[in-house]
């Protein structure tokens, strides 16, 4: 069960945003990721709880940020309920999309798991519902993912395969690179892996 800490920052001006203390693990039904977020000063900022089925589809998502809450799952596309800080109003949404995304590194692992790309495959288009900080506002985004390289590196715990993805935002054409090892993000825009207590889990 990988356990560690990511630091999150603004990918444009590198302003520190949060630390994300996480643990994740594959299980008999898929994969689960749980994290707590703190501000740079150590205050509680939110949480992420994401569970995928064996095909990489989100069977449960729960996000908390700034007293806002989102609960969602794959159902007729993806469906979610967003609740305001007072808990008096809940807004439901459904979009014909493949999965969810957001600032948490969990969503990068989840998208890669859903697409199951190979280095020889062409880029794959995916539609995602992004929940944007700080109020978890939903926004539908279209991306293109391609696995451009997969390379094994020797470690004390045996070979570690690192996958390099090129991700393109189809509305702006902006491209960035994501490096994953199993279910851990090694590097991505706005994400730094600061601490990892146990090796990444390898998906079957």
UniProtKB/TrEMBL annotation:
It comes from the Bacteria. This is Glycolipid-binding domain-containing protein. It comes from Streptomyces doudnae.
């Amino acid at each position: 069960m990988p356990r560690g800490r990511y630091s999150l920052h603004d990918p444009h001006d590198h302003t520190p945003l949060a630390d994300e203390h996480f643990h994740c693990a594959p299980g008999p039904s898929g994969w689960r990721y749980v994290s707590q977020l703190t501000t740079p000063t150590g205050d509680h900022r939110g949480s992420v709880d994401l569970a995928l089925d064996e095909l990489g589809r989100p069977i449960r998502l729960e996000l908390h940020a700034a007293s806002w809450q989102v609960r969602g799952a794959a159902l007729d596309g993806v469906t979610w309920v967003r609740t305001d800080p007072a808990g008096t109003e809940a807004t439901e949404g459904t979009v014909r999309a493949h999965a969810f995304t957001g600032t948490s590194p969990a969503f990068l692992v989840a998208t890669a798991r859903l697409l199951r790309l190979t280095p020889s495959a062409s880029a794959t288009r995916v539609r995602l519902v992004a929940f944007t900080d700080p109020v978890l506002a939903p926004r539908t985004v279209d991306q293109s993912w391609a696995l451009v390289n997969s390379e094994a590196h020797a470690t004390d715990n045996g070979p570690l395969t690192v996958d390099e993805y090129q991700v393109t935002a189809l509305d702006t054409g902006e491209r960035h690179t994501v490096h994953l090892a199993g279910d851990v993000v090694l590097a991505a825009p706005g994400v730094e892996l600061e601490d990892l207590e146990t090796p990444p889990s390898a998906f079957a």
